């Protein structure tokens, strides 16, 4: 049975308070997680502070780059261990975790190692009032100790998406993984020790949010900045905590993303694209589609085609390579998703497919399984269409004109992502400009160039991370003006 301890100053720290970690595929007990209290969080922050003033703080850029590449190699070498840990924690199929989660865990260190080696600086020469000259140049310094708070849907990917740039910029981190998925953040601690990252640079404290490690971390005065990925409501609580001591935040939050299909779209690609953006990772991707808008001439045909896709998924043991649809992350999250399935039914939605729990057999019968689900016939004001469900479900609404669908798509407090399918180039660019989101994919979805700005508008987040954009949060910029 696994024993998920805190990782503080390079040491594995047990506490007297543990909680269960269960495999959502069959609800079997994977191990026990040691909950960090105030003392452990304080020790982690102190260790991170000390590391800044130790060897880590005086490394040359190339030495940091070499260490980041060693972490990449370390993850690659233990790929199968990360894969097993992630699948047991989340229930996601091996075919997904092996192509997305674990490779991105390594890529998120590599991209920022490359960035800090090559990023250009900024300087300005100026004429001065006395007829002379002066030179201005920018200096970037690490922000300091960064609190990293992560969600459960893409645990390694989303944690390293923050730890990669934080370390590349010379910071130190205290990571608080989701209580549902402690495994890969813990395993990364072994890699850090194996490759010689100085103790205290990377720390992991386990626990929950309120009155637990999450809250203790965001409230700790020794934390210089907080990067958070999770629900919008949680983002509000973290931003409130960060306000004390004026710590900056980077927030990647919730969404209720539209998928828009025009009649002129490549039909088969649009069906495949919307099926992926709706059902991949059992609908537990923040960028995923829960609102589909299809132009009326192809509406009926599209609904039938997406239904066929949803009914073609193969559920089963996530370790089985033939399986392409796993459980939700927990029985608790399944209750939330099923409550929306019930809400849709009560509101009189047409249940095109799904709407319940599949009949799993053997040990899988105890897992957090739900049916992929498609609805039509609800008004845009329905909570099913307004609120984030974060499950394998979508509502399909017909539309007639471009203006009408832009209005409907933008009618949400969120603004994270959109996916648009059309072969009309001008329409594609008009939609890209008109949709109030941080990320708009045209004839594609979740295609990621890690140099691009990533983040949400409105209640989907604050700030952008990715490529040079990450420097804004993970460094402090100083302007030096030299009179010549
Ligand atoms: N925008 C993005 O890039 C992105 C990516 C993935 C997930 N998400 C969002 O995350 C949500 C699903 O993940 P989740 O259920 O883990 O989110 P969550 O907000 O419930 O929890 C996220 C993390 O925050 C911690 N936390 C909770 N309350 C806290 C508090 N008061 N103080 C400090 N920490 C606290 C949790 O323990 C967990 O580690 C969805 O809304 C999804 O849209 C967004
Ligand atoms: O569930 C949300 C997915 C977020 C993905 C990223 O942050 C990324 O691809 O960098």
Automatic annotation (TrEMBL):
- rRNA-binding in keyword set: no
Please give one Gene Ontology molecular function term for this protein.
oxidoreductase activity, acting on the aldehyde or oxo group of donors, NAD or NADP as acceptor
A Pfam family found in this protein is Aldedh
Per the UniProt entry, the Enzyme Commission number(s) are: 1.2.1.85
The answer to whether the entry has keyword Ubl conjugation is: no
Q: Where are the transmembrane segments?
A: none
Q: Which UniProt keywords apply?
A: NAD, Oxidoreductase
**Domain Aldehyde dehydrogenase as annotated: residue spans:** 14-480
Please name the catalytic residues of this protein: 252
Give the similarity note.
Answer: Belongs to the aldehyde dehydrogenase family.
Q: What protein name applies here? A: 2-hydroxymuconic semialdehyde dehydrogenase
């Amino acid at each position: 049975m696994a024993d998920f301890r805190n990782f503080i100053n390079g040491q594995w720290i047990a506490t007297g308070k543990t909680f269960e970690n269960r495999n959502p595929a069959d609800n079997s007990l994977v191990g026990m997680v040691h909950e960090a209290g105030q003392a452990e969080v304080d020790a982690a922050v102190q260790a991170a502070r000390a590391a800044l003033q130790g060897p880590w703080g005086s490394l040359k850029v190339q030495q940091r780059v070499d260490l980041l590449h060693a972490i990449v190699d370390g993850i690659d070498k233990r790929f199968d261990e990360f894969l097993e840990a992630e699948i047991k924690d989340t229930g996601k199929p091996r075919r997904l975790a092996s192509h997305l989660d674990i490779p991105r865990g390594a890529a998120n260190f590599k991209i920022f190692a490359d960035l800090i080696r090559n990023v250009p600086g900024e300087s300005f020469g100026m004429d001065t009032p006395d007829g002379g000259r002066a030179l201005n140049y920018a200096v970037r310094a690490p922000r300091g100790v960064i609190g990293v708070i992560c969600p459960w849907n893409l645990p390694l990917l989303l944690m390293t998406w923050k730890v990669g740039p934080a370390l590349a910029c010379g910071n130190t981190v205290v990571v608080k993984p989701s209580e549902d998925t402690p495994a890969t953040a813990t395993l990364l601690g072994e890699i850090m020790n194996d490759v010689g990252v100085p103790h205290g640079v990377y720390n992991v404290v386990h626990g929950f949010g309120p009155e637990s490690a999450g809250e203790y971390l965001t409230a700790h005065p020794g934390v210089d900045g907080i990067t958070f990925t999770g629900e919008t409501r949680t983002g509000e609580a973290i931003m409130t905590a960060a306000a004390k001591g004026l710590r900056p935040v980077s927030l990647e939050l919730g969404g209720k993303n539209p998928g828009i299909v025009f009649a002129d779209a490549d039909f088969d690609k649009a069906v495949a694209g919307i099926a992926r953006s709706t059902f991949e990772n059992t609908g537990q991707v923040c960028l995923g589609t829960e609102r589909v808008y299809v132009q009326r001439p192809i509406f009926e045909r599209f609904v039938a085609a997406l239904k066929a896709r949803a009914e073609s998924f193969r559920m089963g043991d996530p370790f089985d390579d033939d399986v392409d649809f796993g459980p939700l992350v927990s029985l608790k999250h399944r209750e939330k998703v099923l409550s929306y399935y019930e809400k849709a039914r009560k509101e009189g939605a047409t249940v095109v497919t799904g709407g319940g729990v599949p009949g799993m057999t053997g040990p899988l019968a105890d897992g957090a399984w739900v049916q992929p689900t498609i609805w039509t016939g609800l008004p845009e004001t329905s909570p099913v269409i307004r609120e984030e469900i974060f499950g394998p479900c979508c509502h399909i609404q017909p539309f007639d004109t471009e203006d009408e669908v832009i209005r409907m798509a933008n009618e949400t407090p969120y603004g994270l992502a959109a996916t648009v399918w059309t072969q009309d180039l001008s329409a594609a660019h008009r939609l890209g400009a008109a949709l109030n989101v941080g990320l708009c994919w045209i004839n594609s979805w979740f295609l990621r160039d890690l140099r691009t700005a990533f983040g949400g508008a409105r209640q989907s987040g604050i700030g952008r991370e990715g490529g040079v954009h990450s420097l804004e949060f993970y460094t402090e910029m100083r302007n030096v003006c030299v009179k010549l």
